[in-house]
Amino acid sequence: MITKKSSIIIYILLSLLLSIDLYPQKKEEPVNRILFVFDASQSMLGRWQSGRKIDIAKQLLTNITDSLKDVKNLELGLRVYGHQRSFPPQDCDDTKLEINFISSNIFSERIRGKLSMIKAKGTTPIAKSLEEAAADFPVDNSRNIVILITDGKEECGMDPCAVSRLFAKKGIILKPFVIGIGLDKSWQDNLDCVGTFFDAANERDFSNILNVVISHVVDNTTTQVNLLDSLGNPTETDIPLTFYDNFTDIVKYNYIHTMNSMGNPDTMIIDPVLKYKVIAHTIPPVESEIITISPGKHTIIPLKTPQGKLKIMINTKENYQFIIRKTNQKETINVQTINSTQKYITGNYDIELLTLPRQYFNNIRINQNQLTKLQLPSTGLANILLPANGYGGVFLNDGDELVEIYKFNGESNQYKLTLLPGKYTVVYRAKSSKKYIYTDEKTFVIKSGKSQLIKIY
Description:
Elements: H1 4-22, E1 31-39, E2 47-48, E3 51-52, H2 53-66, E4 74-81, E5 95-103, H3 104-117, H4 126-136, E6 142-150, H5 160-169, E7 177-181, H6 188-192, E8 196-200, H7 203-218, E9 222-228, E10 240-245, E11 251-256, E12 275-280, E13 286-287, E14 291-292, E15 298-304, E16 307-313, E17 321-326, E18 332-337, E19 342-345, E20 347-353, E21 359-366, E22 371-375, E23 380-385, E24 390-398, E25 401-409, E26 414-419, E27 422-430, E28 440-446, E29 451-455
Parallel strand pairs: 1-4, 1-6, 6-7, 7-8, 9-15, 16-22, 23-29
Antiparallel strand pairs: 2-3, 4-5, 10-11, 10-12, 12-13, 12-14, 16-19, 17-18, 17-20, 20-21, 23-26, 24-25, 24-27, 27-28
Helix pairs in contact: 2-3, 2-7, 4-5
């Protein structure tokens, strides 16, 4: 038996369950994972500044990982290539995951010992290493970042750019960072397409670049999109925004722009690792330049989106639509319904109204925060009765010219047409008639809100 007290408890529990569904749950924060892909090929034995490239790179990589040991929600891994077999002969499979992903505090303890055991002696299989790197990351909710440290170009005939782009498109890794150590200038183009490329011309550059790259991963980064009106003020809002990863052309984020409680464009958090192209889905859409996000800083993205409104009004039962094109352009940018209001980017437009007959309005100006209204007269009704099924149609009397606006298909002898006010002519010949002399015609006038019966005898 359910008592009154039990009913109250059940009610409270149901209310709690419903409240869980009503309010969006906070998304689990993804794990940040960095995989260092380290070049230990024979060329790293070359001299650079104060010593050999490989020794300097080992020391600076150790220093940077020491600085990360207290960073929360961060796992690090190390893949090395060119260190297992001497060149010659060339071994293009010489790449190995030396330290699997572990928390940053443990990694900083292990990497020093691991790097001390690595000797530079082999070839440079960059593409193969990136391919294997994609499989190193666990399949879970994580931000997967590759930092490639190298002094050379691909030596094994594969295409590191294609490999990098493939796994970025699959969402396995983000666009890699590539740090070139004392790199031959002629080789830079071979690595620039792999990811975000940094040229470390000296030891200080290398140290600074490592810190910049790491900041992309660990520093909080915010941005806002300012949708600017014709005066350059960020007053436009409620517009869908799409952020495309410029490296893969894949959609990364979809947001509806809003203003915060202070009346300013709302702050968004987006990944600073990537560069973006932002599309504001206005009519027509507005596209940004390529956006680079500054890690640890607030980035403002301005888009010029001044808007005005358009409305075409007709007193009719028909649900007419009209086509919108930019003035003197053929591309349709929108199809709108009569008696509705729609926003457009300010400018001049050509309009084609799909009434009978069609109406055209050219070079219509839409201004910031103004409503442009076009009022057409009410339609009338033409009831056309033919003596038999036949061919022909209804023509608009446009001065001395007849313009066909409706065609008889020979399958009916009755037509009800909603027409704009004007002078029209029916031209008809029965389907069974085989001579042109049996063509009949009749002129009539349609007035707003009136019905007209047109009989052909």
